[in-house]
Amino acid sequence: MINNITLKTFVHGENCYLYCPFPNKLIRISKEHYSEIKFLERYGLDCYLKLEKESQAYKDIVVLIQKKVIVESPIKRIEHPLTNYVEPLLDRGLNFLILQVTKDCNFSCRYCLFASKSSDNLKLNHQSNYMSFDTARRSVDFLYNHSQDAKELMISFYGGEPLLNFDLIRQTVEYAKKIFVSKKFKFGMTTNASLLNETMINFFIEHNFYLTISLDGDPQTQNCHRKFYANGYDTFDIVWNNVQTIRKINNDYFISHVVFHPVIFVDEDNDKVMGFFQSNGISNDMVSIQYANTQGIDYTFNGVFRENIEKKSIPISDFKKMEETLKSNLPILVNWHHSGPCVPGALRLYVDIAGNFFPCEKTCSLVSIGNLDQGFCIQNVKDMLNIGKLTSDNCKHCWAVRFCSLCVSQCVDLGTNKIDKGVKTWNCSKQKDNVIKFFKEYIDKTMDYSL
Ligand code: SF4
Ligand code: SF4
């Protein structure tokens, strides 16, 4: 990039392609055009235009410059457009409260940094700490006092393993139902399902709970990833038996209110995991595979990450979102910020066992965005919302700016629990690889337009 020209060229199969982010155009180009664009990148816009070459390819590129397809980045300042609306959004617009009801967990999982028995990182290590009812009640009150504009509310329970504190969940549900008389609201919980029993299941059905079960799939995968913390025993049989109990008690509830979030490593076979659920009559839309961090208690990134990511196709929902982005006419403005960051606290408010606020469970090792005693720390909220400022110079000229979905959770150094520019930059390159992959899949599926 010279003279602020921001574009991306790449080769796919026999063909060359050009993506120009500001008019948002993906174009097939000839090899001659491709070479000309390399000249343009090398010389910069002003020098290139002075070359006045006779070749058709040169003339075509000049036309693209004149028609503002190839254009300088209009972005002069990285600032999130919602920065000035943070206060009213947090004052009146909360709609999703997540309560960390315990830090304790009865599982030890390969990919979970919380599970390390030897970890000297006390902040991350599982601790036998439980939220008190007083903290849960004050959190619900906080939601009540800051949700005037919200149409529908959700209260969700998270851990560790939240069923270790089922009594608190029951009390909190009863309290919320007492105070929220005129609002529609739902409950949710993410659980490993090992402690579920019939009483709990009936309670969840009665109170319309949405359950996310973290079962990693077939017995081999689940047992390899997830052991009981106390004795190292396999977990699949108990979890699967409890899943069957939900089905037996109320199959309609199971289909409409239960989803599965298996977690696998990038070098594992997602088809095998999906196949397990399908063969047990669980439809694809009830299963959403998540990829584990490249670090875990006995797993470390082995260098094949990129290769394996390259082999997997983009999940359908992500493909659709990226296709919408590619078709968007949204102009990019002088003040801009890549998409990705939520308004911390407003999209979700995660309250830890001690009453500290975080944007979500993925960010609870970072500095908090407030607490139950003092309310929100607006500056910390604005800093997280404007995470683009961390890589401001790169973002201003980034060809992937329309597609970028990085948020503060992808900028955390897991060693220091701090926001880190290097981590963000590493995720930038993953992000860009993914966009190129999308372009290639999109081309294979749909594209027939060339220069
Ligand atoms: S993952 Fe990022 S965007 Fe999503 S809730 Fe957490 S902080 Fe917000
Ligand atoms: S990929 Fe990186 S440089 Fe590009 S917009 Fe996103 S954060 Fe900024």
Write the layout of secondary structure elements.
Elements: E1 8-12, E2 15-20, E3 25-29, H1 31-43, H2 45-50, H3 56-66, E4 77-78, H4 86-92, E5 96-100, E6 107-109, H5 133-145, E7 152-158, H6 166-179, E8 184-191, H7 198-206, E9 209-213, H8 219-225, E10 226-228, H9 236-249, H10 251-257, E11 258-260, E12 263-264, H11 270-279, E13 290-291, H12 305-311, H13 316-327, E14 335-336, E15 349-351, E16 357-358, E17 370-371, E18 375-376, H14 378-385, H15 392-396, E19 412-413, E20 418-419, H16 421-446
Parallel strand pairs: 4-14, 5-7, 5-15, 7-8, 8-9, 9-11, 12-13
Antiparallel strand pairs: 1-2, 2-3, 6-10, 15-16, 17-18, 19-20
Bound molecules: iron/sulfur cluster (SF4) (2 copies).
One iron/sulfur cluster (SF4) binds at residues 338, 388, 391, 394-395, 398, 400-401, 404, 406, 428, 431-432.
Describe, in short, the structure shown:
The chain is an alpha/beta fold and 451 residues long. It is built from 16 helices and 20 strands.
Descriptive notes:
The chain folds into two domains: 1-72; 83-313 and 335-383, Aldolase class I (TIM Barrel), CATH 3.20.20.70. The chain has 16 helices and 20 strands. It has helices at 31-43, 45-50, 56-66, 86-92, 133-145, 166-179, 198-206, 219-225, 236-249, 251-257, 270-279, 305-311, 316-327, 378-385, 392-396, 421-446; strands at 8-12, 15-20, 25-29, 77-78, 96-100, 107-109, 152-158, 184-191, 209-213, 226-228, 258-260, 263-264, 290-291, 335-336, 349-351, 357-358, 370-371, 375-376, 412-413, 418-419. The strands form seven sheets. Strands 11-9-8-7-5-15-16 form a seven-stranded mixed beta sheet. A three-stranded antiparallel beta sheet has the order 1-2-3. A two-stranded parallel ribbon has the order 4-14. α7 links the parallel β8 (184-191) and β9 (209-213). The model is unreliable at 117-124 and 296-300 (pLDDT under 50). Residues 338, 388, 391, 394-395, 398, 400-401, 404, 406, 428, 431-432 line the site of one iron/sulfur cluster (SF4).
